[in-house]
Amino acid sequence: MKQILPKVDLIIEILDARIPFSSQNPMLSTIRGEKPCIKVLNKSDLADPERTQQWQTHLEQEQGIKSIALTNENPAQISRLLDLCKKLVPGKANGIKTINAMIMGIPNVGKSTLINILAGRIIAKTGNEPAVTKTQQRINLDNDIVLLDTPGVLWGNIENSHSGYRLAATGAIKDTAMKYDDVAFYVAEFMLHDYPERLQERYKFDSLPQTELALLEAIGRQRGCLRSGGQVMLDKVSKIFINELRDGTLGQLTLETPEMTIREMQEVDVIREKKAAKKAARKSRRKK
Questions:
Q1: What's the pLDDT tens digit per position in 60-81?
Q2: How many CA atoms lie within 13 A of 264 on its CB side?
Q3: Which phi and psi angles does 104 have, rounded to 5°?
């Protein structure tokens, strides 16, 4: 990406509208310089509309950032993205010069599907799993815009544990690399706190369970996820629960707000400081 940047006029970063913070590349802000950037909140049909608006307002506080909420389910809406590209690069918007845009995004965020819609043909491979795009591609659109596609990558160190759970819950991390029940417990706790009405609406409880374990067990009994003796199979019900989150059966949900992520990153800063202090202490002992 660093090698491509000098050749591009703007950056298009595809985010998952359900996790706008956790799905953005934290290294982008340090390498983009003054390049304009469009943050696309994709899969907005699965996200909470009110929280999507909060995120757009929050993201656009950064200099050079514009945001747009899209869904691959509405191809006609996606043409707005191309119009926004031309507005951000007015010097090349008259058709005389080509606008070079680098498009990037984490695995399974819908980037390849979006590219195919923009191109009007099958260019990029798609699939309902992470890491389908393997190589960089150069895609000429018909309206004087060239997309420089990059493979979906996750950064090597996800410091915020909440982001790790959210990425797993939305399918950015391969299912073979996660424990369903662990992620389901995290999501269940969140849903009980932030969206209890969605749980009540979906599962028709007489009374809403008060803990994540009680919630998953109640869903498991509804779905027949039982062993002999009536014990709930947590792994099986966890898969059902996570898949219903992913496909929108639980309703339009956003798993984080700007305020939440600010608090979480403050906690990460404390952890960083403690790690740095321990490292300095070890280094001092070695010198002695």
A1: 999 899 999 998 778 778 888 9
A2: 15
A3: -145, 160
